[in-house]
Amino acid sequence: MLAVSFPAAAFGTNCYVMATGRGQECVVVDPGIGVEEQLREVLQEFGLKPAAVLLTHGHIDHVYSVTPVCGGQIGAYIHTDDRYRLRDPLTSVGPQIIGMFEQQFGSRATWTEPSDVVEVVGGQQLEIAGMRFGIRHAPGHTEGSVMFALDGIPDGVPAEAEVTTTMLTGDVLFAGSIGRTDLPGGDHAAMERSLREVVLPLTDDTLLLPGHGPGSTMARERATNPYLQNL
């Protein structure tokens, strides 16, 4: 499996491009702020054609580029409980943050809703671009936060990592931390349930690809992540 990741221009949001190999259709996960040019370069380098955009949740730093990436031709997949966020995620961002965007990029922050939004739910399986994505609903960071499970691991992962499956965790679980719950739609009690019922049952041989920061493994997080140890 081909997997390429790079951080967005703001907030360090990880954008992932997943495909079965070079020259194939691909899935783009969480196209955040200012990713369009780098995404075009990745698609050109590997000869990839987007077939869908998957969104782990609806915060602006994960969805800002979804509409231009979809281009009116492919679907944007989001959990039904976060669907409302795609109507205009800028409304949940304070004026200081919007001002920072505009100063950094030299243009007014705008939003256009994707023309093809596909609502998904936990437990669903998506067959896209020759890959199967299992949806794990894990609310707490937002109402509709999800993780995407994939059989297999990306090419190039060293054998000593001892992983056999992959989980795109969004802002549910990070290396050494978890997503914050003090933003609108966040719920600390729901996050603890998600960690206990969705995250902790993951097998130790799961590669974790988070929405921010470096990757990890479930074995490592189970042993060292204080938010899991305290449950």
Describe the model.
- This protein is α/β, with parallel strands linked by helices.
- The chain is globular, with a radius of gyration of 17 Å.
- It contains seven helices and 14 strands.
- The N and C termini lie far apart (34 Å).
- The longest helix is centred in the C-terminal third of the chain and has 12 residues, at 188-199.
Number of strands: 14
Question: Tell me, what's the shape?
Answer: globular
Overall pLDDT metric: 93
**SS summary, helix count:** 7
Helix content: 10-25%
Strand order of the largest sheet: 1-2-3-4-5-6
Distance between termini?
A: 34 Å
Strand content: 25-35%
Return the structural class.
alpha/beta
Give me a quick take on this structure:
The chain has 231 residues and is an alpha/beta fold. Helices cover 23% and strands 29% of the residues.
Question: What does the secondary structure layout of this molecule look like, with pairings?
Answer:
Blueprint: E1 2-7, E2 14-19, E3 25-29, H1 36-46, E4 49-54, H2 60-63, H3 66-70, E5 75-79, H4 95-105, E6 117-120, E7 125-128, E8 131-137, E9 146-151, E10 165-170, E11 173-174, E12 177-178, H5 188-199, E13 206-210, E14 216-217, H6 218-224, H7 226-229
Parallel strand pairs: 3-4, 4-5, 5-6, 10-13
Antiparallel strand pairs: 1-2, 2-3, 7-8, 8-9, 9-10, 11-12, 13-14
List key phrases describing it.
23% helix, single chain, 231 residues, alpha/beta, globular
